[in-house]
Amino acid sequence: MSETIILNLPDPLVARARAVATQTERHLEDVLLEWLDRAATDVPIELLPDAQILALRDDELSRDQQEQLSRLLERQREGLLTAPERVQLQELLGLYRRGMVRKAQALSIAVARGLQTPVD
Questions:
Q1: Residue 106, class by beta-carbon neighbours within 10 Å (0-12 exposed, 13-18 middle, 19+ buried)?
Q2: Distance CA 43, CA 92 (A)
Q3: Which of 17, 48, 97, 101 could bridge 52 with an S-S bond, Cβ 3.0-4.6 Å?
Q4: CA 105 to chain centre
Q5: Which residues, including other chains, have CB under 8 Å from residue 16's CB and lie 6 or more apart?
């Protein structure tokens, strides 16, 4: 079941979503729904227990994801990406970027909680 909701979104947000939709050949609505779903399911890192903070700090893409990302980046450099591969590449890059941000946040929280010494 779904419900229609009308939102007035700031122009910069719409511009970013439109750019992603264009790059990934998706509908604007699908990009916005993905963003909303991600925001609703990502637990704020500062609320996680120590063990999860440390696990998140050490988290990486799986070996399969790393290999797939490398392969897609190589195909992109060669100019051989198909439309579905472009979507796949954008999804993996998004996953990588989000992971790096969350890792940095987890590292900061680990230091603040005394779970790790500061990194120079």
A1: buried
A2: 20
A3: 48
A4: 14
A5: none
